[in-house]
Amino acid sequence: MAEEDGGDFGERIRQSFSRQRIMETIGAELTRIEHGTVEIELDFDPKLTQQHGFLHAGIVATALDSACGYAAYTVIDADASILTIEFKVNLMSPGRGSRFLFRGEVTKPGSNIIVADGRAYALRDGPAKLVASMTGTMMVVRGREGIAG
Predict the structure, then answer these.
(1) Can you tell me the distance from the alpha carbon of 99 to that of 43, in angstroms, rounded to the nearest whole number?
(2) CATH class of 2-142
């Protein structure tokens, strides 16, 4: 996994990601952590498909939300956390591939609100195919009981 030397955010993200049971359930893994960018990858699994055999839109949205949230996490203080407060997903092409890449990138950092954009790609023979995009708004959370890391 690639990681820029930017403090301890990489370790904090890995620890937080390991507590996200949904990521374990769908078989997702962190593959890149850099300041402002996080990538998550997922192998195709028929258990994650909709009725036509494509990766389900709910799985796409879930992985993009995590990628964008963790991208936002790379630009906050160590004592803060992130919660998604809104997102919009555009499904552009059927989720058909042997593996999927979900990239979240901070578009607009802020001290209280962070905007991140995500892209989901289907990987198979040939070039990666863009299957979805997302814009998410994240709230920086500080000093709230039960919300840390």
Answers:
(1) 4
(2) alpha beta
